From TrEMBL:
Transmembrane segments: none annotated. The lineage of its organism: Bacteria, Pseudomonadati, Bacteroidota, Chitinophagia, Chitinophagales. This is Cytidylate kinase. Its EC number is 2.7.4.25. One of its GO terms (molecular function) is dCMP kinase activity. It is found in: Cytoplasm. It holds the Pfam family Cytidylate_kin. Belongs to the cytidylate kinase family. Type 1 subfamily. ATP binds at residues 10-18. It comes from Chitinophaga agrisoli.
Length: 230
């Protein structure tokens, strides 16, 4: 089958990365977690006390940031994020980063820095990338665009369970506030706000199991690939 670009955008914690990994595994594609890049940049800004209200300071800091993904052998599973040679995977998932990432991701220089790298990663096709602006800005000509959503209460519950397994001090309220704040900032920022691309297919997985969401998406991939090769 001809390799295409698959974009998955949507609100926080609705299952984008879960579906992206499932598809990468099934199709033998490369999975790219664009959110991890914004999280790693945010971590760098926090650790180095970068004043991100100051665009000169942001531009200077970005020249010192090198981002890389490390993959499992087949490129599908856990892609650890490396920041300047260091595996920052657990750190970037922490609430300290989650609390600031949407602010940092709204900065023009930060988006230009990340988007340029993301576009390069798609040059050979055969990728599935998840994020907020992948179908609208990063790959506006992608062959298959999915826009995921799920009820807020379900998304909060899903993310809470994930974080609670690692940190028993986390509260449902804290997770809810973080999700709602990020969704608000991400949807209302000036540059590349979270929007459904006009040609994206909506996938509401509130009531879907992981397998059901995969089967639906695989059908869309088949359709998109057929259009592609016809
Ligand atoms: O996993 P979750 O959906 O909670 O977030 P993520 O995909 O790791 O993204 C973290 C944050 O990075 C988002 O809330 C956005 O502020 C930002 N982001 C973005 O602006 N554009 C993207 N393509 C991906 C993430
Ligand atoms: O990438 P995003 O933030 O959109 O979400 P995720 O990290 O893929 O999924 C958030 C949580 O929802 C994970 O713990 C998934 O296992 C879970 N999930 C689910 O329970 N049912 C689905 N149909 C999809 C994801």
């Amino acid at each position: 089958m001809k390799k295409i670009i698959i974009t998955i955008d949507g609100y926080s914690s609705c299952g984008k990365s879960t579906l992206a990994k499932q598809l990468a595994r099934e199709l033998d594609y490369v999975y790219i977690d664009s959110g991890a890049m914004y999280r790693a940049i945010t971590l760098y800004f926090i650790q180095n006390r970068v004043d991100w209200a100051n665009s000169a300071a942001v531009a200077e800091a970005l020249t010192n940031i090198q981002l890389e993904f490390e993959y499992d052998e087949l490129h599908h599973e856990q892609a650890s994020m490396y920041l300047n040679g260091e595996n920052v995977e657990p750190l970037i998932r922490d609430m300290v980063v989650a609390d600031k990432v949407s602010e940092v991701a709204a900065i023009r220089e930060v988006r230009e820095f990340a988007v340029a790298q993301q576009q390069q990663m798609g040059e050979k096709k055969g990728i599935v990338m998840d994020g907020r602006d992948i179908g609208t800005t990063v790959f506006p000509h992608a062959e298959l665009k999915i826009f995921m959503t799920a009820d807020t209460a379900i998304r909060v519950e899903r993310r809470f369970r994930e974080l609670y397994a690692k940190n028993k001090n986390i509260t449902l309220q804290e997770v809810k506030e973080n999700l709602e704040l990020r969704d608000y900032i991400d949807s209302n920022r000036e540059i590349s706000p979270l929007r459904k691309a006009a040609d994206a297919i909506i996938l509401d997985n509130s009531q879907l199991s992981m397998d059901e969401q995969l089967q639906l998406a695989l059908q869309w991939v088949e359709d998109a690939t057929m259009v592609q090769s016809s």
